[in-house]
Specification:
The chain is built from 1 helix and 2 strands. The chain is an alpha+beta fold.
């Protein structure tokens, strides 16, 4: 029983940290989408560069 408890605690911590990591990634992606992207185009219509809008 003691070994089972010792095994369950690290596994639960790992699951919690993976969940937090997924939440952080989702928030980062949302911030990027909210900011938007501005791109500059050359005379032929090709993209010169893109940057995040302020």
């Amino acid at each position: 029983m003691k070994k089972l408890i010792i095994l369950v605690i690290p596994v639960s911590l790992l699951i919690m940290s993976c969940t937090e990591l997924a939440d952080m990634e989702a928030r980062r992606q949302q911030r990027i989408e909210e900011r938007g992207v501005e791109c500059r185009y050359n005379k032929r219509g090709g993209v010169e560069n893109c940057r995040y809008a302020n």
